[in-house]
Specification:
- The chain has 13 helices and no strands.
- By secondary structure, it is mainly α.
Length: 282
């Protein structure tokens, strides 16, 4: 029972959790340098409020607190690494076996096809959960070890909610890439369309932010990209600290979850479809 799930955990735990270790170290270092960085926050914040930075990084993003700095810097790093990991997992999950002709052997396990795919996805979810946990734990550890570190009221909770929301976004995008992988069953097409989805949505968000400088009505364009629904969430930390937990964007996060679940269900249905089972893998 759960043989595929446990096998994936044993084989992939290190490679899939490597990003979590990197972000955890970075989180620790950012907290450690905060006392020497804090005197320059005011001057840097003036620069961050320039329209060009607001367009590139998101409206309202700034350096008003240690939590804000952590959120902004870590998300830039984690975005880069996770976009690569998502594409890699989408390819490794199904299409690489199809390209090499080993998919039939992989599917010889006495489990339904949909369960074969689902257990792989659950293993990915389990291992990448280390991202918010390790990164958050590193920040707490640094604040305990290093004197002079003070988080804002509700700051740590807001930081964890920001990390958790980002992780949910990554999982949703992963499910979409898996759907692309199952539909095309080709490594090149999966990388092409998956890269277009991930990179294109981010580029579109940036272009929309730049256009918004000229016309606020262009904010509607941000809704064309999945990143938009978390861009409000980039301000999660500051908003929760200033306003309270009611500022958490539940609607945006629920939307992201729905998109991910629907994409995964479609991928499972297609992969288990009798027509799919008759396809020739080259």
């Amino acid at each position: 029972m759960f043989e595929i799930y446990t096998k994936q955990l044993r084989k992939k735990w290190f490679s899939w959790s490597a990003i979590s270790f990197v972000t955890a170290v970075f989180s620790f270092l950012m907290v450690a340098i905060w006392p020497s960085f804090e005197p320059y926050v005011e001057s840097l914040q003036e620069m961050m409020e320039l329209p060009i930075y607001q367009a590139l990084l998101g409206e309202g993003v700034g350096l008003t607190s240690l939590e804000s700095l952590l959120t902004m810097e870590l998300f830039i790093i984690s975005d880069i690494f996770f976009m690569g990991l998502i594409l890699l997992f989408g390819v490794q999950c199904i299409t690489r076996e199809a390209d090499s002709g080993s998919l039939d052997f992989m599917l010889s396990f006495p489990v339904p096809r949909w369960r074969f795919l689902l257990e792989k996805v659950f293993a990915f979810i389990t291992i990448t959960l280390s991202y918010p946990i390790f990164t958050f734990a590193a920040a707490i550890l640094a604040s305990v070890i290093i004197p002079g570190i003070k988080f804002n009221p509700r700051g740590l909770e807001a930081y964890f909610l920001g990390l958790l929301s980002r992780w949910i976004l990554y999982l949703s995008l992963t499910c979409i890439v898996i759907l692309i992988s199952v539909v095309f069953m080709d490594t090149g097409k999966t990388l092409g369309f998956g890269g277009l989805l991930l990179g294109g949505s981010y580029i579109l968000k940036t272009i929309a932010g730049l256009l918004r400088m000229a016309d606020p009505a262009m904010a509607d364009m941000l809704q064309l990209t999945s990143f938009y629904y978390y861009l409000d969430g980039i301000k999660i930390v500051d908003d929760i600290i200033k306003v309270g937990y009611g500022a958490y964007p539940f609607g945006q996060v629920i939307f992201i979850i729905i998109i991910g679940v629907v994409s995964l269900l479609l991928a499972l249905l297609i992969f288990d479809n009798p027509y799919f089972q008759k396809r020739e893998f080259k």
